[in-house]
Amino acid sequence: MPRPYASGVVAAPAETVWALLRAFNGLPDFLPAIAKSEIVEGTDGAVGAVRRLTLADGGDPFDEKLLAMDDADRTLTYAFTGANPFNARRYVSTVRVAPITDTGESFVEWWSEYDADAGQEEGLNQTFAQGVYAGGIDGLRAKLA
């Protein structure tokens, strides 16, 4: 099972980074690949909420459901619900923020596990790890600079 992963340091306190990530509907604020997000079910930040995302390069919107939110550990986990532009099956992703105690910065990790056809895995690993997760971490850096 593929497990794309990205991590990085963001020059801001963990509480500040977590506040941006915790806003489940806030991806367009720091992730350039996402043009629009709207909560279509539940309440933003509450487990069970569903956000509908539209990619910046167009295409059909797709939904993600918030599966877990842990403010103490600064983690959130979400999953695709139904059709998605990546044709991934059983996609579950987690993002985590940890304080770097000696500098006051944050360490951000973002990863997923998914199922897809074997021929798609290499491309999807690149898309998720670099395009989404590393892109999101870079976006957090830019937003908080």
Give a description of the structure.
This protein has 145 residues and is an alpha+beta fold. The protein is built from two helices and seven strands. The chain has helices spanning 14-22, 121-144, and strands at 5-10, 34-41, 50-55, 62-70, 75-81, 89-100, 105-115.
Overall pLDDT: 96
| Continuous helix count | 2
SSE series: EHEEEEEEH
Distance between the termini: 36 Å
Coarse structural class: alpha+beta
Which percent range describes the beta-strand content?
Answer: 35-45%
Topology readout:
Blueprint: E1 5-10, H1 14-22, E2 34-41, E3 50-55, E4 62-70, E5 75-81, E6 89-100, E7 105-115, H2 121-144
Antiparallel strand pairs: 1-7, 2-3, 3-4, 4-5, 5-6, 6-7
Defining traits:
145 residues, 41% strand, 7-stranded antiparallel beta sheet, globular, single chain, alpha+beta
Put the structure in a nutshell.
Helices cover 23% and strands 41% of the residues. The protein has 145 residues and is α+β, with helices and mostly antiparallel strands. The radius of gyration is 15 Å and the shape is globular.
